[in-house]
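Why should sequence recovery work at all? Because a backbone constrains its sequence more than one might expect. Tight turns favour small or flexible residues, buried strands favour hydrophobic ones, and helices have their own preferences. The token representation captures these environments compactly. In the example below, the structure is given first.
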């Protein structure tokens, strides 16, 4: 049948488009509010389910930029979306949350990604590009743990707590055999190697969330900093974007850095002692337990969340971030609105969200993502 030939061709294109590091598995029915043709269907391992994607006359090029933490998720979504909607070209640069928000408020993008919700001044600036009384809103779309990766041969099960982590990144703890680290790791053979702590050189929502955790959980060390997307502590070394920090940690003996879990492949990560019954390693399940405790604090159509960075619940990893897709609630450009709604509608769907766990991200809890889907439907 013609439909079968089209599906076989789409799957072939998808296999070529998705890299080995982004193997996809998705299942379930369309959950975007529009009816799917038939019930849910399972996808073969390594190939995304495209049955729920509704192109809805979407065409042209979507320019987007922002969070590098979600770049691997966007790449996976784009590969799947492009199978179904071949008239749309999505260009997401992943230059960092700060760059994305700035470009969006300057009218350069169809949507932006940010690991931090819009600030009041950002919302005000967005009103100049969201016509007809519209403004930028935050749509939570990607969750995940901020992993602390380290390069210390022979030490495979490092445990850190908030205060020790804060002292490392504040340049107060300088070697790996420091008594504070030894106390948390009594059975580890810690060398006297100098610690090379890497942070982001660009404005980053990952930095914002990482330092919000330090500020909330280690106020005695980090309380003096105001926080935000720009790194404020003295010392350390820097690299651009999550990929840059991860690469520096991989190639530098004694290094430590923070980045979204999908960048921690082939790297050892620290477990965090939160005061729960046992230290918690970064994982999508552990992040989901923390994100489920988040509260919606945005008003109107804005769905900004407040995360609980000091959770002590067993199995909950406290160092999490949520990436928002930022778009105009109304007043979007007419030539990009259909494609924007189609792409955002897909990534918020059950099939879109199910891709996340295959790429070391955490899906947004149902109670929140259902509101996101409704909001996307009403974009104009």
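From this structural description, the recovered sequence reads:
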């Amino acid at each position: 049948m013609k439909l079968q030939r089209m599906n076989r061709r789409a799957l072939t294109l998808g296999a070529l488009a998705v890299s080995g590091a982004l193997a996809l598995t998705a299942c379930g029915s369309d959950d975007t509010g529009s009816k799917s043709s038939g019930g849910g269907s399972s996808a073969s391992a390594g190939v995304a389910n495209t049955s729920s994607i509704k192109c809805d006359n979407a065409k042209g090029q979507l320019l987007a930029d922002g969070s590098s933490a979600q770049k691997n998720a966007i790449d996976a979504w784009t590969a799947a979306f492009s199978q179904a909607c071949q008239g749309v070209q999505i260009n997401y640069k992943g230059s960092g949350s700060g760059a994305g928000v700035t470009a969006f408020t300057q009218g350069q993008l169809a949507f932006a990604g940010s690991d931090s919700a819009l600030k009041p001044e950002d919302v005000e600036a967005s009103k100049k590009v969201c016509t007809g009384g519209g403004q930028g809103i935050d749509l939570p779309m990607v969750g995940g743990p901020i992993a602390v990766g380290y390069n210390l041969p022979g030490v495979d099960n490092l445990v850190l707590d908030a205060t020790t982590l804060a002292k490392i990144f504040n340049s107060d703890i300088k070697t790996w055999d420091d008594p504070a680290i030894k106390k948390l790791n009594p059975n580890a053979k810690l060398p006297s190697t100098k610690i090379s702590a890497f942070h982001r050189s660009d404005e980053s929502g990952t930095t914002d969330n990482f330092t919000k955790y330090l500020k909330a959980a280690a106020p005695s060390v980090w309380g003096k900093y105001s926080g935000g997307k720009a790194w404020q502590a003295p010392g350390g070394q820097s690299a651009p974007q999550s990929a840059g920090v991860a690469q520096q940690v991989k190639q530098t003996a004694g290094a430590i850095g923070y980045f979204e879990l999908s960048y921690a492949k082939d790297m050892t990560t620290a477990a965090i002692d939160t005061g729960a019954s046992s230290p918690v390693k970064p994982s999508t399940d552990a992040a989901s337990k923390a994100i489920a405790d988040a509260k919606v604090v945005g008003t109107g159509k804005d769905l900004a969340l407040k995360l609980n960075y000091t959770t002590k619940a067993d199995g909950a990893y406290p160092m999490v971030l949520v990436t928002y897709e930022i778009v105009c609630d109304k007043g979007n450009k007419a030539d990009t609105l259909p494609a924007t709604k189609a792409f955002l509608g897909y990534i918020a769907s059950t099939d879109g969200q199910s891709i996340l766990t295959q790429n070391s991200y955490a899906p947004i809890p149902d109670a929140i993502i259902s509101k996101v889907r409704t909001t996307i439907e009403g974009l104009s």
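A few observations help interpret the result. DSSP finds 13 helices and 13 strands in the chain.
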